[in-house]
Amino acid sequence: MSAATAGEAPADHSTVVDERVLGSGTTLRFVLLLVLFAVGALSMSLDLVNAFTYDRHANAYLCYLAAGDNPAAGIQQQVLFSAPLDSDAMKDCLARYTTNLSWVPFVVTPALIAAGYGLYRVLPVWKQRRSRLVPLDGVDVFGTLRPLLDDLVATAGIAGRPPRILVNPTAATTGAVVFGTSRRATISLDGGLLVKSRTDPARFRAVVLHELAHIYNSDVGITYATVAMWRTFLVLVLLPQIVTFAHGAAVSTVPTSWGRAYAYAHVIAQPFLISLLVYLTRADILRTREIHADLTAARRGASRHSGFPAAARNTAGPSYRVRAWAAFRQLWRTHPSWAIRHRSLTDPAPVFQSSALPMFLTGAATGMASVRLHNLPGSSLLMIRVQALLLAGLAMTITGALLWRAVAYAVLTGRRVPTGWNAGLWFGAGLIVPEMTDPLVNDRWLPTHPEALLILAAVCVLALVWTAQYAELRIRTARGHTLRWAMLWGIAPPWLLLSYTLNWWNTDGLTLATGWFYSTSVTLKAIGLTGVPTLHPSLPSQIDAVLFNLPGHNAAADTLWWGLPLLWIVPLALWGAVRPPLRAPAWLTRARPQVPDPAPLPGVPPRLVHVLRPGLIGGAVCCTALLLVMAVTAHSDTWFSAGPDRVPAAAMLDYLTEIKLVLCGTGVLTAAVVAVRGDSRYPLLRGLIAAGVATLTGTVGEWVLRTADGCFGPLNVERTFCRWENPADTWPGIPIALGQPLGPALVLAGLTAAALGAFPSLRRSRAEVKTEAIAKTSRRAQLARRLTASAIVTAALLQVATVTAQATIAVATSHDTSTTVSASDLWAEDTTPRVSVETARLQLLAWARVGGVDLFSQTVAARNDLRKGFEAALDAPPADFLSVYAAQVPQTCGGFSALVRKARAFFPVPVAEGQHLWTQFLERFESTYEACEASTQNPTFAKADTVNISLSRAIDAYNAFHRWASRFEAPTAPPRQ
Amino acid sequence: MGRALLSVVRDVVITNAPEELPLVVGLNGLDDAEIGRRLARGRTSDEPLGFGAGEVVALVTSVVWMAIQTTANEVVGAAAQGAFGRLRVTLRRMFRRTPSAAPLPHFGRRELAEVHRRVLELARDAEMDPSRAAQLADSVISRLVLDTAGDSGE
Questions:
Q1: Hey, which residues does A164 pair with through a beta bridge?
Q2: Does the structure show a pLDDT above 60 at A316?
Q3: Is residue A410 within 8 Å of A42, Cβ to Cβ?
Q4: Residues 6+ positions from A624 with CB-CB distance below 8 Å
């Protein structure tokens, strides 16, 4: 094409990379937007339904009070208080006082999808009418336009799905636009552009090919699906919510106080944040797609730059303030600036950047969806797990793909490879912003402990720094035709890490934001020890409290804990299998089309032994430290203080914590040493592998030492006999306890290595240790490396499988035994404040209101029925007493049976003393019922007398309860009989 | 009364800017007032998958249309373009009636001079070449004079 090359600067071959080397991930970003719409719509329509049923809902709190909830204990206790929700009494009560909203998703979702789809189909028709667009064939008076456009459609590679072509005769601009559905696209050409087809054919060609490139890149369907969803959302969800909110605020009789302004702020924050996120994300995606379309069009022969205004080439930078303002305005636009588009054609760097905006937006969309999803009513643990898995999958694929592209571009052009820190920090920042609006955490402006959210951000940094380093290692050593599968495989470990963390946050971690709590008794119970917790916890148990709350402590299979060790197992397996390519692989040749015979990428990784050696040294240090702990423990004063073989539970807990600390500490220390010593590349990967090997060796050493315990003479700790016995049999909970440190150890080791690796200055003070690169040719060395790596990987997988299996079984069995003592009782044991008289009064009132009073009136009715039967029998002549009794009394027995059944299904009395009297009352009525039933068969005077006595005893119990209850001066106390 | 505005513009475009003929053909079927409004706006809004806000071409169609229509409106009087006129357009659009091409009013010497001045002014605003603009203005006047001559001959 002569027109295509005229007037262009020759491209620098070292910088040009084919933008299709990896998928751009924008389609998934659209999918995340659709998820955000769906979740936002669902959550807001629930808010809407709630707003209309508010009065009923306010009464629902009575159920919680009646069940013994303590409002003085604060939200922390209320979060823990979820267990009694399972009781039948609670379910019955809530059913009476709340609206069953489980139908809402089933109505709202299909309705929104149908409305959105309808709009999606109608939009093109509406657009054509509104803009007065006319078909091309009607205006092609010279007969030249149609053949020209047919030729361009064929050039663009979409001859199989030719678009409809329309003309906007009143537009003097030289642009064009494509719209429609994924099946049928429509191009509208501006009048000015049509004129250019004769006066400036190169420009006409460039603009039309750009629009056709949008069709080729499948941008049309998904873009207009988002437009349709957004408008549906606006009209059917956002508008009603704003109206309801405004109406509610207008008619509210409660005076608005600034002290509670946060409540309004949180209500407004959600739709505001969702709208902002949607708008900015859509604009950002579209800007990327524009550059992709420019590049696609250029490849199809569009004359570079000829569609752009002359000003596009002026790239002189104005002042900082002007540039900042321009950048801010650019955020809201769907098209990149002409200068960027101009530059992108010679160097497509903008489509390879892992810039802050998409990272932040992806984080925020994920966080928003996560917060809203776990607040939906009736979401079970399984649903939380699946949601976390799907959301983290979307988020990691999007951010991971962005980072992989950035790394690939840097590696291919020899520029500085991104560390992943920026990406991680922005992603993390995005993820925690919506958490601030979580209604579960917020009864104030911010959560009580917003610093807990930093854990989430730290994990995001870990995930993306890992991704950046793994991507570099993989790309430099990749063979084959495409990087795509390598990328997807490389995204899996951080995906599991993020899924695990979201899981952890939505179940355990969230409570950290409301307050710090730790129960020694729960810890003891969890590891199979029972004993009295000490009032002043020792230093080890305080450290254990910290470890216990970090992500990684729960090793059950469903938490996806087993994904964490993959962070070191996967890179180790890769390191073992590396075969540096001798000549450029196929993917590299395709990625750099301008370079005729590219050389293989430089940067062969260091030998495996340099990575493994520090790990093994760390393992040895770990075993030595364990031996030391045993020695110190065996000689401590508190050990065996209660006699031989009787170790105090608290001392045992300290001992186990010390073992955990040794395992955790050596892991972190090894990672830190590796990150600042040796080869400067891949500090996180090498640190993690070394920490993994060290903890693996340490765990094996620990198992050997504890199995052989009893044979060490003065160093014996748990046993005094020297014979084979599996430690798991002696202390059933111990394997879980020891599985615990592996998770936090890896997360902490990873964060340490990532942090230290980010400061190359730490390394300068030491002489750079010489490391040899992996040999390219020696087959023997390759085999040895592969075998070593495989052996360690197998051992590590076995360890993961064992810990996961043990933890899963332990959790399953603890669920079986938890019927007698509820988990919340245990949790709350150490932290619940005592119930005040005022709270007890409220609880009792609520108890009476939600069903207690009904039971009282039923009691009175049952008693009266029985008494009537008796009176009828007594009024009859004595000879007829028994016959009248037999006719009148038996039918009244049923009343007692129904009463007792109902009372047993009802809440226990929320105050312990009252519950004692209530139980007595129930037992006596039950015996009245039994006596009554017995007297119906062959009634005798004696049997009738038993019923009478039994009834008066029951009435006594009733009155005793009443006397007790009246001490609380409850206005609804039962009537005295 | 003279011929319809569209046919005058078409004749001018055929002689002065034949490449714009497809646009004039495309205007067929639209309401005169609406064409005027849309031509005055000139550019399309920023569309999601558009090429981007491009430059505006100096269209002969637009210059001629605006110059004649504005003058014609002044002749007919503001009333037709007032509230009632707009209402009629809206109603017509609502019931999808094919708009009638309103015939142009009679242009006297003063109106022709006004049209000439407007063409030059609009062409200058559109950054059209001055010599081309002068030629265009003359061409419009001669076309209108032809029309007027035809009218008085009848």
A1: A186
A2: no
A3: no
A4: none
Instruction: Report pLDDT digits (tens) over A490-548.
Output: 999 999 999 999 988 887 777 777 665 555 555 555 555 555 454 456 677 667 766 66
The pTM assigned to this predicted structure is: 0.82
Looking at residue A785, its amino acid is R
Ranges of H-type helices in A677-778? 683-707, 727-730, 734-739, 742-757, 761-764
Strands (E), A332-441: none
CA distance B36 to A618: 82
Nearest-angstrom CA–CA distance, A707 and A792: 22
Percent of chain A scoring above 90 in pLDDT: 26
Q: In DSSP terms, which residues pair with B4 in a beta bridge? A: B103
Minimum distance, in Å, between the CA of residue B153 and any CA atom of chain A = 33
Contact criterion met (CB below 8 Å) for A739 and A807 = yes
Q: How far apart are CA A202 and CA A302, in angstroms?
A: 8
The stretch A322-349 carries a mean pLDDT of 86
Which position has the token pair 């971690």?
A509
Min Cα separation B62/chain A (Å): 8
C-alpha A277/C-alpha A494 separation (Å) is: 24
Phi-psi region of B85 (alpha: psi -120 to 50; beta: other; left: phi over 0): alpha
Q: Is B44 within 8 Å of A190 when comparing Cβ atoms?
A: yes
pLDDT at A515: 61
Q: Which residues contact A515 (CB under 8 A, 6 or more apart)?
A: A74, A76, A448, A449
Q: What is the ipTM metric for this complex?
A: 0.87
Q: If you average pLDDT over residues A173-192, what whole number do you get?
A: 92
Could A179 and B47 be called an inter-chain contact, meaning their C-beta atoms sit closer than 8 Å? Answer: yes
pLDDT bin (cut points 50, 70, 90) of residue A434 is confident
Phi/psi of residue A260, each to 5°?
A: -110, 20
Question: How deeply is A820 buried, as exposed, middle or buried, from its count of CB atoms within 10 A (0-12, 13-18, 19+)?
Answer: exposed
Q: Is any Cβ of chain A less than 8 angstroms from the Cβ of B23?
A: yes
Chain A within 8 Å of B5 (Cβ-Cβ)? no
